[in-house]
Design brief:
7 helices; Arc Repressor Mutant, subunit A; alpha+beta; four-stranded antiparallel beta sheet; Jelly Rolls
Length: 240
């Protein structure tokens, strides 16, 4: 096994089982047959990362791609002045490293405890080239990543802080729903500083805006997230 695949492992020694993986229905693996999953299973190495552990480092070699199976990771770039710009959050079912080459264009670290299937880039790419369905699914995921990037550009555009935060909350609700966690309560494992860095706001603005939305009974602040109380109004604001 590549020594890079050991990074972040927390004593997890069980063999991966793609056939019974709970993440499979909403990940790239969903398009593969039983035989193809067996091939993929042979390439997979289960890894675990603790909070703040690093998966990829901007500008360094990226010999591994990851399919997140549990937990949440943050994707970010370091600006020339040393500031951090978060460009996205990875949830279960998301692949990390697909759009990169041998060198990582972004850094990725774990927000909470993250489980993942790690694949050597070279052998994974060879499998994708040999399996048209997998390649098409990878293309769909890349398109989805591009859509998310475009949505973030809109979020960072000419919207007020309140509009940015409402859009963020609704987007996270939709993303959790896509992986089977549909609820008016939106988990937010990331910190308010993370949200601020993602939306191009200050942490003070994020905290003040969430408090105001709660005071206006648009949301209810709960441990580890928010509950959307007036979804119809929030959607109207987001659509404006």
């Amino acid at each position: 096994m590549d020594h890079n695949l050991h990074h972040g492992c927390a004593g997890l020694r069980a063999e991966p089982n793609c056939l019974t993986c709970e993440t499979r229905p909403f990940s790239v693996c969903s398009v593969l047959s039983g035989e193809e999953l067996t091939m993929l299973n042979a390439l997979a190495h289960p890894v675990r990362f603790g909070p703040k552990d690093t998966l990829l480092v901007q500008g360094q070699a990226a010999p591994t791609v990851y399919n997140i199976t549990s937990g949440t990771a943050r994707l970010y770039t370091l600006l020339p002045d040393g500031r951090r710009q978060i460009v996205g959050f990875a949830l279960p079912g998301d692949f990390i490293g697909l759009s990169m080459h041998e060198t990582a264009s972004i850094s990725v670290d774990a927000i909470d405890s993250v489980g993942a299937c790690a694949f050597p880039r070279v052998t994974y790419s060879a499998l994708a080239d040999a399996k048209p369905f997998l390649l098409r699914r990878l293309h769909d995921l890349a398109t989805h990543e591009l859509t998310l990037a475009q949505e973030q550009m809109m979020l960072l555009g000419r919207r007020s802080a309140e509009e940015k935060i409402i859009c963020f909350l609704l987007t996270m609700q939709q993303r959790w729903a896509r992986i089977g966690r549909s609820s008016v309560t939106v988990p937010l494992p990331m910190s308010r500083q993370d949200i601020a860095d993602f939306l191009g706001l200050t942490i003070e603005t994020v905290s003040r805006t969430l408090t105001r939305l709660a005071r206006d009974r648009m949301i209810l602040l709960v441990p580890d997230g928010v509950r959307l109380l007036n979804t119809n109004h929030l959607q109207l604001v987001a659509a404006a």
